[in-house]
Amino acid sequence: MTRAKIRIEQVSYFYGPKQALKDVSVDVPEKAITVFFGPAGGGKTTLLRLINRLNDLVDGTRMSGHIYLDEADIYGPQVNASQLRRRVGMVFALPLPLPGTVRENVVYGLMLAGVRDQALQDEMLFRSLNQAALWDEVKDRLDDPASALSGGQQQRLCIARSLALEPEILLLDEPTSGLDPISTAKVEESLFKLKEDYTIVIVPHSIQQAARVADEAAFFLMGELIEHQPGKQIFTTPQEKRTEDYITGRFG
User: Fold this and answer.
1) 104: exposed, middle or buried (Cβ count in 10 Å: 0-12, 13-18, 19+)
2) 124 vs 75, 109, 117, 195, CA distance in Å?
3) Are 34 and 8 in contact (CB under 8 A)?
């Protein structure tokens, strides 16, 4: 049985008086793609943000329960949030390349971390772009502005930027929501390769994408975890609790 890389235990979360998550418990297996899916407002993005503590500075929120990474509570007093985020990278729905060149985008995090060795930067540049299935398309454009890349290329560049820091976990929040089918397919293809080395959690932009990529799938509805099963099983034998509209592929 695959080891749990992330263990979420009885997590509830509030934005002021509004409860976004209700007593959620779920394990995320190591080196696999886990999909969090369900209608809008189900708490999926909130849970992603809690896994790498992006909500730490959001005022008026509170959390109960525990989130463990390799059996260590990530909200424990001994955990440094910045160091945690190096282990847990995150890619958002809209591609957000930094000002500057393709090369500068990828090595930006390394520079912040104090890596000045040019040979090491070049090694990480190649490895990250290759893992994100982008190297062949940009190897002759490394000194071009990142903004000149297509939307799909920019999103894979953002994935490469996260990978340059050698995280253990990659969180993706609807990473293909604004992309065309060809770009979406390339991003999904890169995920299948990445799961050989990384634990991946993705909020997909459609039920079809969820079914294509999921090794494990967890269905959320109004802040509750309704169902958690292997991907092949959950999309062929849905439980009655899942809404009919949702099963037909309509989000929101």
Assistant:
1) middle
2) 30, 11, 11, 18
3) no
| CA atoms of 34 and 32, how far apart (whole Å) | 6
148 in Cβ contact with 96 (< 8 Å): no
Partners of 26 in beta bridges: 8
Can you read off the two tokens belonging to residue 225? Answer: 């975890």
Which residue is listed with tokens 């490394």?
Answer: 142
Question: What is the percent of the chain where pLDDT is above 90?
Answer: 73
Among candidate residues 160, 174, 95, 171, the one with its CA nearest the CA of residue 131:
160
Look up tokens 């929040």; give the residue: 173
pTM equals 0.89
DSSP H or E segment with residue 63? strand 61-69
In the sheet that holds 61-69, the strands lie side by side as 18-29, 4-15, 61-69, 72-73
DSSP string, 72-111: EETTSTT--HHHHHHHEEEE-SS--PPSSBHHHHHHHHHH
3-state secondary structure at position 157 = helix
> Can you tell me the mean pLDDT for 76-84?
92
Q: How far apart are CA 66 and CA 228, in angstroms?
A: 18
